[in-house]
Design brief:
This protein is an alpha/beta fold. The chain has seven helices and ten strands. The strands form three sheets. The protein has a five-stranded parallel beta sheet with strand order 7-6-8-9-10, with helices on both faces. A three-stranded antiparallel beta sheet has the order 3-5-4. A hairpin with a 2-residue loop joins strand 4 and strand 5. The longest helix has 20 residues.
């Protein structure tokens, strides 16, 4: 397979690197979603294999969209709550400077953001009080309770505490695991960007990357490309 580069894009993807990262491996053919079939090359030992030329084409289209919205100053949130991927999602979110949710999807984070914002504000206020000595007037037990509450709030809201409004788009690593996030975004008309493995309906996303969403190396390869695009596209301050 030749290097894939679109005429209108400066984003270059090499299928050899994609293959090394394992993007081409899907699930067993018995778990295939019928709408993913156009992106498949075939099966091998009962395992679905993605056509990496088509994956590269869709990934380039997706990265171009991300570049566009980020360059316009819009906010994309990264969603990935599967246990094996949490650390990776947190790392990419922090390094790219984008909001992320890695612990569990917060119901209403899109459809009822004003209520979520109140909880975020409370979390920030509690953190500030702790850091400036505002909790010193409480007993040792009460301070320990506050510390525990802050820890729980950090796990829940830490990745999105910089949000002042609903994100302009979301990037979902696993649409099966975080289907509620996809549904909320679709209700509010917010673009959904997502990986689509062979057991997933790719049409749930406005921009999909048909690829392996199980292997750490596969997801890391894709999210590193996302990070690269985001960092290059961010408006200079």
């Amino acid at each position: 397979m030749a290097e894939t580069k679109t005429k209108k894009s400066d984003i270059t993807l090499e299928p050899e690197e994609m293959m090394e990262a394992g993007l081409h491996f899907g699930h067993r053919s018995s778990k295939i979603h019928p709408k993913i079939k156009p992106y498949l090359y075939g099966t091998r030992n009962g395992i679905c294999i993605f056509d990496l030329d088509k994956t590269a084409e869709k990934m380039t289209e997706t990265l171009e969209f991300i570049k566009k919205i980020v360059s316009e100053g819009k906010v994309m949130a990264l969603i990935g709550t599967r246990v094996q991927l949490r650390s990776l999602v947190e790392t990419i979110g922090k390094e790219a400077g984008i909001p992320y949710i890695s612990n569990r999807w917060i119901g209403g984070a899109i459809t009822n953001f004003p209520m979520i914002k109140k909880r975020i504000d409370y979390f920030i206020e509690l953190e500030n009080k702790r850091d400036t000595g505002g909790l010193s007037k409480y007993t040792k037990k009460e301070r320990a309770d506050f510390d525990k509450e802050i820890e729980l709030l950090e796990a829940k809201f830490g990745g999105i505490k910089g949000l002042t409004a609903s994100p302009d788009a979301i990037f979902v690593v696993d649409m099966n695991k975080d289907l509620l996030a996809v549904k909320e975004a679709r209700i509010k008309g917010i673009p959904v960007i997502a990986l689509a493995d062979t057991n997933v309906d790719p049409t749930l996303a406005d921009y999909c990357i048909p690829a392996n969403d199980d292997a750490i190396n596969s997801v890391k390869y894709i999210l590193e490309k996302v990070k690269e695009v985001v960092l290059k596209a961010k408006p200079k301050k």
